[in-house]
C-alpha cells in the first residue's frame, strides 16, 4: 500500500476502507485517482471530488463485512457478548447485518460494572469518561486502535485544507480523558507542529500564540470562547482554523469565534467509547460525518423529529468491542448525501443527554449526583436543590438553587464551595478556570419541592 506522506504508516485507503472492496470496478478507478490525487497534494476539493464517485452501497457492503467479522470475534473472545448471544439465542455465525442483533442492547451499566468481561486481548492503554467517582467508564484499547483513530483526525485536517506547515495548539485535557492524547498523536501523524497545552487557564495559551506562530486552535468550546474574548479585547491573532468538540457550541458563539479569528470553526462529535472521534463536520459545517467503516451508529426509537438514543456498534476493535452500546447521547441522523460529496451518514444534531448527564466547562459529569454528594456535606442546607445550566452572553452559567434558612448565607455559600473543592475537585477546577460561572441562589426550605411534585433537579436550557 502506498502511504501518503501526511499519513506515515496509515494508508489513506484504510480510512476510505471501501476501496478494499474487491468486486466493484468503479472502486478501482477511484483508487487509481485517489492515489494520483494524494501523490500531489490532497485537499478538500480533491477528496470531495473523489468522494462523489463513491456509491453509498459500496460503503455499506464493507461495513457489513466488518460487522460479520467483529461479531465472530466477540463470540470467540468477549465473555460478555458470548453470554449475550447465548441469552438471546443469537448464532454469531448467522449474523449478516445489524438487524440480526436487534435483541441486544448494551447498557452503560454493564461497562461500568464489568469492564473486564468486555476485554478481548491484553489492553495497552485506557481512557476514562470523566465524571463522579465510581461512575466513570474505563475503556481499554490497543495502541493499534488508538493509532487508527488518530488517522481519522489527521484525515480531517486534510479535509479542512490544513497542511503539515500549520502550527497547532492542543488545549484538550490529557488526564485520563481521550481527546488530549489523540489530538497530539494526530498532529504527530500529520507531521505538523503541535503545542501540548492541555487544559490550562486561557491566558496561558493566549500569551503563547504569537511566540509559537500558532494558526490552528484545538480544544473545548468553553475554553476557546474565553480565549476568543481575550483576543477580541487585546489583539486579534488570525487563525486558519479552529477545531473543537466535546461540548455544545451555540451557533451565535461559533459566529463570534469565526469573526474574531477570521476563520472557520469546525465541530467534532466523539467520546471515549468511540475512541475519540465518532465524526466531524466538513467544510459545509452541516452535521457530523460519521466514520462508518469503524462503527455503526443507530438511532433507537426515533421520535417524530427523528431524535432518539444513539447506539454504537464498533466494527474494527480488538480490545473492547461494543455491540449496540447505548452511549447516552440523543441525536438525529441523515443518510442524505452532503454537498461535500462524502458518502457517509451524518449526525445532524446532538439533542442532549439521557440520564441527566451533562457536559459543561469541558467536562462530562452527572450534575445531580455530584451535587447530591457535595451538598450532603453542608449541614445548613436541606439537600433539595435545582441546578440550571444556561448561556448568558458568552458565558455558560450553572446556577444552584438550594434551600436554607440559615441567617448568614455568605457562610453557607462558602461551605458549598469548600465542599465542592473537597468532594468534586473536577467541578471545582473548571469553576476556578473560569470555564463557567457558578451562581448560588438561596430559597426557603421545602419551596423547591411542592407536595407530591417530583423535583426536577437538573434543568439544561443551553440550546
Ligand atoms: Zn459534508
List the defining traits of the structure above.
Rossmann fold; binds zinc ion; GMP Synthetase, Chain A, domain 3; alpha/beta; disordered N terminus; four-stranded mixed beta sheet; eleven-stranded mixed beta sheet; single chain; 19 strands; 15 helices; 463 residues
Describe this structure in words.
The chain is α/β, with parallel strands linked by helices. Among the domains are: 138-355, Rossmann fold (3-Layer(aba) Sandwich), CATH 3.40.50.12780; 366-460, GMP Synthetase, Chain A, domain 3 (2-Layer Sandwich), CATH 3.30.300.30. It is 35% helix and 23% strand. It has 15 helices and 19 strands. The strands form four sheets. The protein has an eleven-stranded mixed beta sheet, sandwiched between helices. A four-stranded mixed beta sheet has the order 18-17-16-19, covered by helices on one side. Bound molecules: zinc ion. Zinc ion binds next to loops. Zinc ion (ZN) binds next to loops.
Protein topology:
Blueprint: H1 12-15, H2 25-39, H3 44-51, H4 56-77, H5 79-87, H6 108-113, H7 115-118, E1 125-128, E2 138-141, H8 143-159, E3 167-170, H9 178-190, E4 193-196, H10 202-209, E5 216-219, H11 221-233, E6 241-245, H12 251-261, E7 264-271, E8 276-280, E9 288-290, E10 295-300, E11 308-314, E12 325-334, E13 346-353, E14 358-360, E15 363-365, H13 367-375, E16 385-392, E17 395-403, H14 409-423, H15 425-432, E18 437-443, E19 458-460
Helix pairs in contact: 4-5, 8-9, 10-11, 11-12, 13-14, 14-15
Bound molecules: zinc ion.
Amino acid at each position: 500500500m502506498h502511504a501518503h506522506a501526511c499519513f506515515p504508516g496509515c494508508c489513506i485507503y484504510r480510512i476510505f476502507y471501501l476501496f478494499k472492496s474487491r468486486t466493484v470496478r468503479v472502486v478501482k478507478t477511484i483508487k487509481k485517482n485517489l492515489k494520483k490525487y494524494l501523490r500531489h497534494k490532497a485537499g478538500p476539493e480533491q477528496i470531495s471530488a473523489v468522494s462523489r464517485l463513491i456509491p453509498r452501497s459500496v460503503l455499506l457492503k464493507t461495513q457489513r463485512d466488518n460487522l460479520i467479522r467483529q461479531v465472530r470475534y466477540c463470540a470467540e473472545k468477549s465473555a460478555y457478548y458470548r453470554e449475550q448471544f447465548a441469552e438471546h439465542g443469537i448464532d454469531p455465525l448467522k449474523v449478516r447485518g445489524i438487524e440480526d442483533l436487534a435483541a441486544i442492547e448494551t447498557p452503560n451499566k454493564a461497562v461500568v460494572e464489568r469492564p473486564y468481561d468486555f476485554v478481548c486481548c491484553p489492553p495497552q492503554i485506557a481512557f476514562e469518561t470523566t465524571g463522579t467517582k465510581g461512575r466513570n467508564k474505563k475503556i481499554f484499547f490497543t495502541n493499534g486502535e488508538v493509532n487508527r483513530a488518530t488517522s481519522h483526525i489527521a484525515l480531517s485536517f486534510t479535509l479542512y485544507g490544513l497542511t503539515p506547515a500549520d502550527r497547532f495548539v492542543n488545549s484538550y485535557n490529557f488526564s485520563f480523558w481521550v481527546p488530549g492524547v489523540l489530538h497530539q498523536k494526530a498532529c504527530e501523524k500529520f507531521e505538523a507542529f503541535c503545542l501540548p497545552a492541555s487544559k490550562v487557564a486561557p491566558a496561558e495559551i493566549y500569551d503563547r500564540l504569537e511566540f509559537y506562530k500558532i494558526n490552528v486552535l484545538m480544544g473545548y468550546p468553553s475554553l476557546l470562547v474565553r480565549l476568543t474574548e481575550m483576543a477580541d479585547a487585546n489583539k486579534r491573532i488570525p487563525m486558519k482554523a479552529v477545531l473543537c468538540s466535546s461540548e455544545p457550541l451555540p451557533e451565535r458563539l461559533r459566529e463570534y469565534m469565526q469573526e474574531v479569528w477570521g476563520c472557520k470553526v469546525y465541530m467534532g462529535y466523539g467520546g471515549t467509547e468511540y475512541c475519540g472521534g465518532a465524526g466531524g463536520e466538513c467544510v459545509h459545517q452541516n452535521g457530523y460525518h460519521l466514520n462508518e467503516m469503524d462503527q455503526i451508529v443507530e438511532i433507537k426509537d426515533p421520535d417524530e423529529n427523528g431524535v432518539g438514543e444513539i447506539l454504537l456498534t464498533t466494527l474494527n476493535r480488538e480490545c473492547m468491542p461494543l455491540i449496540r452500546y447505548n452511549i447516552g447521547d440523543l441525536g438525529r441522523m441523515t443518510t442524505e448525501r452532503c454537498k461535500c460529496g462524502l458518502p457517509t451518514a451524518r449526525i445532524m444534531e446532538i439533542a442532549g443527554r439521557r440520564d441527566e448527564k451533562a457536559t459543561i466547562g469541558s467536562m462530562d459529569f452527572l450534575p445531580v449526583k455530584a451535587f447530591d454528594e457535595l451538598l450532603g456535606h453542608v449541614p445548613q442546607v436541606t439537600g433539595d436543590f435545582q441546578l440550571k445550566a444556561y448561556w448568558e452572553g458568552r458565558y455558560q452559567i450553572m446556577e444552584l438553587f438550594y434551600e436554607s434558612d440559615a441567617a448568614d448565607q455568605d457562610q453557607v455559600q462558602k461551605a458549598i464551595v469548600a465542599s465542592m473543592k473537597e468532594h468534586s475537585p473536577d467541578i471545582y477546577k473548571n469553576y476556578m478556570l473560569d470555564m463557567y460561572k457558578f451562581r448560588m441562589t438561596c430559597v426557603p426550605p421545602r419551596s423547591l419541592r411542592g407536595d407530591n411534585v417530583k423535583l426536577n433537579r437538573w434543568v439544561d436550557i443551553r440550546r
